[in-house]
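REQUEST ID: PR-0412
SUBMITTED BY: lab tech R.K.
PRIORITY: routine
TASK: structure prediction, single protein chain
INPUT:
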Amino acid sequence: MSKWRSAWRTALYDARLIIFSSRFAMLSVVAFIFMDLMMRPIRDFAGIYNLKVVPAVLPFYLTNTTFGNLAFLLLILLFSDIPLKAGAQKFLLQRGKSLVWAGTGHVLALWLAGAAFMLEQLLFSVLTALPDIQFGDWGKVWGSAASSRANELGYNGPGISDEVLRMYGPWQAVGLAVLLFLLTGCIYAEIEYMLNGLSRGRLGTAALSVWSVLWILLDHFPVPAVRRLLAWSPQTWNDLSRLTPGGALRQAGGLAVAVLALSAVAVFLVKRRKIEMVK
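STATUS: complete
OUTPUT:
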């Protein structure tokens, strides 16, 4: 139990360094701007007909190729300094009594910081729907935006999936979207952690940033044969329009297994001193 407590102390220490950093604050402002860009056409459409909006944009925001990859890019930039090597890490490592438990603490910190980032996205999805907001079923705004006559009705925003509206309630869809994105984000963070640690630099940050930007560029590529590659975009892992509620839970289970497997690899690399945690 003492080793678990040491791991949690390391995790909380690392997570605080990330969450209360100036980088987190700046990226939060950018994240709010991106969310507002997605919600603005929805708010304008609601204003035309004097309707209220259910703040359930996340299932569409996080699976949009452009906005979803921008969200991943912000998460990658948030973790650009990992593995953290602050001076107090040496003390925490000594208290952990084992590289395995200290490495476990570092991995847990990625989960905690990723959860904080995801909760912030959830908050922004509510704030950007103000002031005309309501809680309940999908309502007329989302239903009209997803209809085949959306343009005729005056909606000129990103595509809204009618399949999501038919298969899920709004809060069920939001909850599953948050879960799937969080698990995928943890996979990104752990890959970034290992590549940065192994390279003693920011290889993981650079590689995953290029990866995310390439999907955004591909979404605007005019050649249909090339655009078919979008079927492999990470957003398809989280796309509720392609998954039944049971399928979404199975997808979450598969992603959770991947997170645990990558966590074990990361801790093993720390144990073998392939990843250094102190200066």
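NOTES: The longest helix spans residues 170-199.
REVIEWED BY: pending
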